[in-house]
Amino acid sequence: MKLSQMRYFQAVCVYGSTTRAADSLFVSQPSVSMAIKELEEELHVKLFERQNNRMLLTREGSFFLERVNKVLDDVRSLEQTMQHISNDNTVTLSLPPIVGDFFPNLLDQFLRQHPETHLEVYEDTQAEVQNLLRAGERDFAVAILNGIEEEEFITCPFLKVELMLWTSVYNPLAQKERVNFRDIGTSPIVLFKDSFYQNAIIKSYFQEAGIEPNVILYASQTATMKNFARKNLASTFLFIEECPGEPLLRGVHFENPIVFSVGLIHLRDKAFRSARQEFLDYMLHMLPNL
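That's the LysR family transcriptional regulator sequence above. Prediction below.
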């Protein structure tokens, strides 16, 4: 079984015809048809049924497609990782929105001092960061350190951030100096999707208070959460660094502050060369001075 055969098969699944699949891959239609025939003979199954000039997956074909998609995704990821490893001038960094303006300013200063370095910055969820570092798809990450495996990762803390309740200025909760989870009760709230680390913390506080939270939306963007809060449709939980200049919102501290440590992390057993080591040295020098 060849990768080219899997790519041809995947394209036929997408386009429903060998002709359109061939056009998308810039190969001849007989090449695609032959690849499908060879796969069916090798696997001893029928992958497609032909109906009204369309090729429809059989049950076996659907099962095979799931595995093919995974294999080709893994191949693409491996290709990207190897290209990255071979390029000593590239530094990849995962950066969350909670670091405000000062961290981009640090990056700007680094690039001015090292103009030959190519910096790629990505926004990843807390749940993704450790796996991306393990896979070599990111060199470094700025992340919440709570829950990071310190045996596997080296951490450099540089910031404390406080999680607050954010609500409309017209919401009664906005009149309080401090709140607890009983104050919030079953009033509507918006949370990040469950892949975000702070969700588990928030839900544990509700559980301790004996309250089932009234979650009306699981969002992936802070903009969506703030929009619900501005319109007084729900309250939400964000760091103050995520809500600069919000006249229609008020951030309320918790009676027992919920504080997270933020830092730079990288794999403990990973040796860096060239631009990556220069980046690490620069950050280790600058971050303690913030």
